[in-house]
Write a structure and sequence with these properties.
mainly alpha, 3 helices, 63 residues, 0% strand
């Protein structure tokens, strides 16, 4: 299974409010590469927004 397919499965089968975007910079992807990877995932725009910051804002109480 391709990584994107796994993430799409996570959206459907788990709690999408607990998923956050992250990278292993500087050891791996640059922040821009990580952003592009998230943008290319086969998931809903709502889930993408959650991954890209809404979930973190909610956790920090700033949403």
């Amino acid at each position: 299974m391709h990584f994107g397919e796994e993430v799409a499965k996570v959206e459907k089968e788990t709690v999408p409010d607990k998923i956050f975007m992250g990278s292993d910079y500087p050891a791996g992807q640059t922040p821009q590469e990580a952003l592009e990877a998230v943008k290319s995932l086969p998931v809903s725009e709502e889930f993408r927004r959650k991954i890209m910051g809404d979930n973190a804002a909610s956790l920090l109480g700033i949403a």
